[in-house]
Amino acid sequence: MCCADTCKQNAIKIIEDKNGLWYPEIDKNKCIECHSCEIKCHAICSGELIKKSELINYIPRPYIAWNKNTTQREISTSGGSFAAIATQILRNGGVVCGAKIENNRVKHIFVSSEKDLPLIQGVKYIQSNVTGIYKQTKEFLEKGTTVLFSGTPCQIAALYSFLGKKQYNNLYTAEVICHGVVSNLILDYHLKYNHASQIITFRTKSLGWGRDTYTSVIKNGEYVILNKKNLNFFYDAFKSDTVNRPSCYKCKYANIKRIADITMGDYWGKTQFIEDEKKGLSLLITNTIKGDNIITQNKQLILTKAEWKKCLPKNPRLYCDKHECENISITHQLHNIFLYTPKFFAKNFIGPRFTKRNPLAYIRSYFLIKKKKKINYRVEKELIKVLTKLHEL
Ligand SMILES: Cc1cc2nc3c(=O)[nH]c(=O)nc-3n(C[C@H](O)[C@H](O)[C@H](O)COP(=O)(O)OP(=O)(O)OC[C@H]3O[C@@H](n4cnc5c(N)ncnc54)[C@H](O)[C@@H]3O)c2cc1C
Ligand code: SF4
Ligand code: SF4
């Protein structure tokens, strides 16, 4: 979406296609064929534009972290580290950019006060619309305002690409470890199948961390957690890895050479902090000195150095993609499947539940499991390679 912000003719609009994916649309009457949009597109450019010199020399450091502020941690997905870093930036007069839910879609916004921070806390598993955000970030930076920009690694790469070669000391970037985003249609049908009108959160800790893959919604005007497995169409579809945005399967950012100053994810590597584990732990990786300084100076964060061999195995998106799933993807057929297939078949084909009671789900699950076994085998090999590389650094 950096293309839309780059175009000086305002010729690019970001629109949602019939399969629930955001794509740029060019108004040929306005376009003067200057190709700036292509030059800036992180998906097209070689990646050289987004490489920061610091990233080449710095050895990444992993930490286990959590936020001392229990209220902030409670509404966060992992250990609430993002909120701790964001609070620090806001208290020093800066602004924070992150993803917010609005009308059952996700978009990036800026917040400048702690009161508004909850709007951009918590994970949202559909793609965030960032139209206009890169331009606004540049305006803040040029004015001298400190900016913490958070998002998926591809959004951070797009920001660096948009900003060009100029380095901004007042810019901090924080990326999530990214499993990939799913089509907006999956959310629409999840709400429809559950007779709900609005998504509130994509994960909730009310049953404990690790058992938090349930959405909360507004249903008949009331706040409800859809905490029964048979109501969890969104996660069944999400977990199948067949309804991702197509570019997510061959994600070039699923690489141990990270893009942002800080990488944030879940820490699943079993620790001595049993009690705290239940409330959620973050894995924080610092990829630059700037990133390391900001988290080590943060008074709200409890930090402990982590070991690569413990944190990498449960987080494969830190070092390899899942391109094998591309040929079992049905993302480009979603519109037709939802429109022309009876609800029972659509539900079980798109979000197969791994159950023998349901023959259709069972058949599809069988193929998915077979495919995933192949991926797991490759992931294990990649893990050994990356651990060796990290120990040699
Ligand atoms: C699409 C997606 C996939 C993820 N996959 C994994 C994974 O496989 N493994 C893992 O360990 N962690 C994954 N995460 C990250 C994890 O869920 C937490 O967001 C992260 O650990 C930060 O947690 P927190 O408790 O510090 O703060 P939280 O408050 O939970 O984090 C919120 C942060 O995530 C950003 N964010 C939320 N939704 C979006 C979105 N749709 N687009 C862009 N930015 C968004 C917000 O801007 C904010 O910076 C994923 C996050 C996203 C958005
Ligand atoms: S080629 Fe130039 S004018 Fe045309 S859409 Fe791209 S940036 Fe805009
Ligand atoms: S998987 Fe890669 S391409 Fe997809 S949203 Fe995440 S960072 Fe972007």
Task: Provide the descriptors you would attach to this structure in a database record.
18% strand; nine-stranded mixed sheet; 393 residues; alpha/beta; binds iron/sulfur cluster; binds flavin-adenine dinucleotide; 14 strands
Can you give a write-up of this model?
- The structure is a single chain.
- With 393 residues, the chain is of the alpha/beta class.
- It is built from 15 helices and 14 strands.
- A nine-stranded mixed sheet has the order 6-5-4-7-8-12-13-3-14, with helices on both faces.
- Helix 6 crosses helix 7 and helix 8 packs antiparallel against helix 9.
- The model has no long low-confidence stretch (mean pLDDT 89).
- One iron/sulfur cluster binds next to helix 7.
- Flavin-adenine dinucleotide binds next to helix 5, strand 4, strand 7, strand 8 and strand 12.
User: How many beta strands in the DSSP annotation?
Assistant: 14
Topology order in helix (H) and strand (E) letters: HEEHHEHHEEEHEHEHEEEHEHEHEHHHH
Work out the radius of gyration: 21 Å
Tally of individual helices: 15
| Main sheet characteristics | 9 strands, mixed
How much of the residues is beta strand, in percent? 15-25%
Which strand order spans the largest sheet, edge to edge or round the barrel? 6-5-4-7-8-12-13-3-14
Determine the structural class based on helices, strands and strand pairing: alpha/beta
Bound molecules: flavin-adenine dinucleotide, iron/sulfur cluster
Q: Which residues form runs of ≥5 with pLDDT under 50?
A: none
In helices, the fraction of residues equals 25-40%
Distance between the termini: 35 Å
Mean pLDDT: 89
Shape: globular
